[in-house]
Every structure is written in structure tokens, then in C-alpha cells.
Design a protein that fits this description.
108 residues, mainly alpha, two-stranded antiparallel sheet, 4 helices, 2 strands, 4% strand, SNU66/SART1, nucleus
Length: 108
């Protein structure tokens, strides 16, 4: 079995000789230079090259509250479940709705 660039018709013309030389002088290193053109797209995923310097005395103070459409407070799990149902366009099952209604009745 033979692999690579093979010339079945060995013509002694100048054009055939240059094509053989071009095929033999091709190096794998030339492939890597093509990546430099494309590398600009990957820079956005690498992040900043500078180190992040925190400001002295900076202490963020925030409170993340989850509220449903009726104004009732929700915990993190309930908020995620609500967001998931809203995104996928499917509501919770009948038993979960009944369970939530009982919980709301007990709270009020």
C-alpha cells in the first residue's frame, strides 16, 4: 500500500518537477500559522490577562429576594422551579399545585 503524493506519470517537464517540490516542501508547521488568524475569536473566552485588583474597603451589600406574581416571598428552590416552568411553557403537576395551595392556606 502506498500513501502520500504519488505521480503515476513521471513526465520530465518543468511543471511536473515543481509540483513534486512543492508537495515535498510542505511542512506541518505551516498549519499552525493559520490558527493565528482564527485565534482572535478565542480571545473573548480566555478572559482578561491582567490580575483583578479588589478595591480596599469595598464590601458589597445586597439582598437577593425572590417574589412570585402575587408578591409572596419564595426561597431559591421555589424561584428556580417557577423560572423553569415559565421558560419551558409547562406548569407544575396537579399534586404540586394542590400542595402549594395548602401551604399558602396554612401561612395565611
Amino acid at each position: 500500500m502506498t500513501k502520500g503524493y504519488l505521480d503515476k506519470e513521471s513526465a520530465k517537464s518543468f511543471g511536473a518537477t515543481t509540483s513534486v517540490i512543492q508537495a515535498q516542501s510542505y511542512t506541518i508547521e505551516e498549519k499552525f500559522y493559520d490558527d493565528d488568524r482564527i485565534g482572535g475569536r478565542r480571545d473573548r473566552y480566555s478572559g482578561s490577562m491582567q490580575e483583578f485588583r479588589e478595591k480596599d474597603g469595598y464590601h458589597p451589600d445586597f439582598k437577593l429576594d425572590y417574589v412570585d406574581e402575587k408578591g409572596r416571598m419564595m426561597n431559591q428552590k421555589e424561584a428556580f422551579r417557577y423560572l423553569s416552568h415559565k421558560f419551558h411553557g409547562k406548569g407544575p403537576g396537579k399534586n404540586k399545585i394542590d400542595k402549594r395551595m395548602k401551604k399558602m392556606e396554612q401561612e395565611s
